[in-house]
UniProtKB/TrEMBL annotation:
Organism field: Rubroshorea leprosula
InterPro entries associated with the record: Rossmann-like_a/b/a_fold (IPR014729), Universal_stress_UspA (IPR006015), UspA (IPR006016)
Superkingdom: Eukaryota
Organism lineage string: Eukaryota, Viridiplantae, Streptophyta, Embryophyta, Tracheophyta
Pfam families referenced in this protein's UniProt entry, alphabetically: Usp
Annotated ranges, domain UspA: 94-167
TM region positions: none
Name of the protein this chain belongs to: UspA domain-containing protein
Length: 168
């Protein structure tokens, strides 16, 4: 019994953060193709963020590929609808990723949290005691990175574990 506990304590956790982008699924496939054998002694966690509506911004909040724009007078009802839609999108993304992993013979744990993707990913790393974070990197261009920042750069600077950025 104590030997099983010892083995469980040594088990490493790898987390892949996914969204609707092709780049995040490229990162997931990279993990499955290159680290598949390590999942005999490690655990794979797939994480998706539920973006929260930003009603004080001109940029809007993501709803899947779309964005929600609202005035400063948006009702809690509208925000609730947007949050529920984002939750459903995240659960759908996790289901798709779980299916991809199952087709490769890899079982996974899935998780989703609401919030800003950069912060939610870094918080999830700590919450789930992740040993390696894997994220896809998309080329957003200089202007978009300047104004919005880079998720991969934020995670490299703030995640409390090593970060592997998979370029497409």
């Amino acid at each position: 019994m104590s030997e099983e506990k010892g083995k469980e304590g040594l088990k490493k956790k790898v987390m892949v953060a996914i969204d609707e982008s092709e780049d995040s699924y490229h990162a997931l496939m990279w993990v499955l193709n290159n680290l598949k054998e390590s999942f005999k002694s490690s655990q794979l966690v797939i994480f998706a963020t539920q973006a929260t509506p930003k009603c004080n911004s001109l940029s809007g909040a993501h709803i899947g590929y779309a964005r929600m724009y609202c005035t400063a007078l948006a009702t809690p009802y509208l925000s609730g609808i947007a949050m529920e839609t984002n939750r459903k999108v995240s659960l759908g993304l996790l289901e798709k990723a779980q299916g991809i992993c199952a087709s490769q013979g890899v079982s996974v744990e899935t998780a989703t949290e609401a919030g800003d993707p950069k912060e939610a990913i870094c918080k999830a790393v700590q919450k789930y005691k992740i040993n390696l974070l894997v994220i896809g990197d998309r080329d957003n261009g200089i202007l978009k990175r300047f104004f919005h920042g880079s998720l991969s750069r934020y995670c490299l600077d703030n995640a409390k574990c090593p970060v592997l950025v998979v370029k497409n």
